[in-house]
Design a protein that fits this description.
This protein is mostly helical and 202 residues long. Helix content is 44%, strand content 6%.
Length: 202
């Protein structure tokens, strides 16, 4: 299916997705993620590229770059958000498989890059609100202490078993940033409260 989404990897010689597996693919710490992205589209891995395209349009005056970035974001929000949970199919463990035209894997996890909330909000604020509020509902398993699991089930929203839940400080920062962004748009006290409580875990 032709979509405006971008593939995560291209063979620079053929300008197509890789056709053969790198024999040393397991050398990478992110081996699982690497192999998924070899046949997938993962907006979370493209966030800096999206911003670069916006900058290109500002620098050149040619709007085709920003238009391509907007088309990617708009399509992603319209086709890669769980109807059941509101979570996006992106991050450390999920991709849209461009060969099979299907979402692959189940674990939602923000990782490293700050989400492009402002750019996405401009195109579809309801979608962004659903994702951020799903982070609170699904990742924060203790609503008092704000202890959390960095993983969230895209389809069911179920928590992982306590023995494998993993709260990392970097995720606290991503959650606090996301909740505070939402507060700047909604003015709702609960969103500020979430941001402050998530930030206290840093």
């Amino acid at each position: 299916v032709a979509t405006p989404m971008w593939v995560s990897m291209l063979d620079l010689k053929t300008r197509r997705i890789p056709q053969t597996k790198d024999p040393n693919w397991q050398r990478s710490y992110d081996a699982e993620d690497y192999m998924r992205n070899a046949r997938g589209s993962n907006l979370h891995r493209d966030l800096l590229t999206v911003r670069t395209f916006d900058e290109l349009s500002q620098l050149t005056g040619d709007q085709k770059y920003a238009a391509a970035a907007d088309a990617y974001l708009r399509y992603f929000m319209g086709h890669c958000q769980s109807q059941a949970t509101g979570l996006y199919a992106w991050g450390e463990h999920m991709v849209y498989n461009v060969v099979r035209d299907e979402i692959e894997a189940t674990r939602h996890e923000l990782e490293r890059q700050l989400p492009a909330w402002e750019e996405m909000w401009r195109l579809d604020p309801n979608s962004v609100r659903r994702e951020i509020e799903a982070i609170y509902r699904i990742h924060i398993w203790d609503k008092e202490t704000f202890n959390f699991d960095r993983h969230g089930n895209y389809y069911t929203g179920q928590f992982d078993d306590l023995r494998v839940r993993g709260p990392y400080a970097k995720h606290s920062g991503l959650y606090a940033f996301s909740f505070y962004f939402l507060y700047t748009k909604t003015g709702e006290a609960k969103h500020l409260d979430w941001a402050l409580k998530a930030g206290q875990l840093l």
